[in-house]
Amino acid sequence: MRYVVGYQPDDRGADAVALGVAIARAQGAKLDLMLVLGENAPYVAANPEGRRVNAEEQQVIMAQRAALGMIPPGVEAEFHVRQGHSFAGVLIEAAVEFEAALIVVGAASNGLFKRYTVGSVANSLLHASPIPVALAPHGYHRMEPIERLTAFIGRRRGADAAVDVALVAAGRRDVPLRFVSLVELDERGEHGENINAAHRHANTVLEQAAHRLPAGHEATVEVAHGRSLEEAVDSIDWVDGELVIIGSSRLAQKRRLFIGSTANRILHALPVPLVVVPLEYEEAESRPLG
């Protein structure tokens, strides 16, 4: 099991490393820390034992030491340096090459503490990656193992892939699994049936999940509602070791990500890490986030 972590020597890179460690710890996944240089940058080899280095090579060496210095004992990690025009493109190529189960990146560094403002790299990944993408909110430093998985569920195309990944990942990690259905209340107040329908669907998902989880595994459902999706998300209680899983938009191409308007609104309201699963993702059983 391998995860590709997009690293850069700043707060965003540190957030990504912390989340990569937290997700990897449950099953001993290896982290491939990826520093991406521009195509016009001189090629440099990270070799702290070699000859005197120039300024560019020194920066890479310092980045390598900083990145690997954050990795706690017991977590396997390797540092890579690659060049390319697109940071996101290089991460995707590396993930395909390594047969990685996940790409992990940090949110843009100008966001509020533990909130998201999606930068260009994350945005590109969320519209092109063939494998799940994990986003660390700004200021995320927790490296302890994930303690609970929450899957946002719905009846639109794309939700099933997220449920499948959540079921497999929770079962293998032996952590509680929570299904959450969000309801945006009607401005006219005619929302009773929408809430009832959400409860019915959530209970159906839970009933089906019971047959796929190990005996005695904890699984629950919640329906959160508010005058907006953001308000509904704010009403949810979170634990420190939470990880949210959500499906890609129904507009996505098969086995590709495309984050739609609903997921984007949820993303900007979340205070915890998020994994977005490609449409019709078919490898949950073999590579379920570790």
Question: Would you write up a description of this structure?
Answer:
With 290 residues, the chain is α/β, with parallel strands linked by helices. Helices cover 33% and strands 21% of the residues. The protein has helices spanning 11-24, 55-69, 87-97, 120-125, 159-173, 192-210, 229-234, 261-269, and strands at 2-7, 30-37, 77-83, 102-106, 133-136, 148-153, 177-184, 219-226, 242-247, 274-277. The protein has a ten-stranded mixed beta sheet, with helices on both faces. Helix 4 links the parallel strand 4 and strand 5 (133-136). The chain starts with a strand and ends in a 13-residue tail after the last strand.
* Main sheet characteristics: 10 strands, mixed
Major sheet strand order: 3-2-1-4-5-10-9-6-7-8
Strand content: 15-25%
Structural class: alpha/beta
String of helices and strands: EHEHEHEHEEHEHEHEHE
State the separation between the terminal residues, measured CA to CA.
Answer: 6 Å
Q: Count of DSSP helices? A: 8
Helical residue percent?
25-40%
* Unreliable sequence segments: none
Shape: globular
| Secondary structure: number of strands | 10
What's this entry about, in short?
By secondary structure, the protein is an alpha/beta fold. It is built from 8 helices and 10 strands.
Write a concise keyword list for the protein shown above.
290 residues, alpha/beta, 8 helices, 21% strand, globular
Describe the SSE topology.
Blueprint: E1 2-7, H1 11-24, E2 30-37, H2 55-69, E3 77-83, H3 87-97, E4 102-106, H4 120-125, E5 133-136, E6 148-153, H5 159-173, E7 177-184, H6 192-210, E8 219-226, H7 229-234, E9 242-247, H8 261-269, E10 274-277
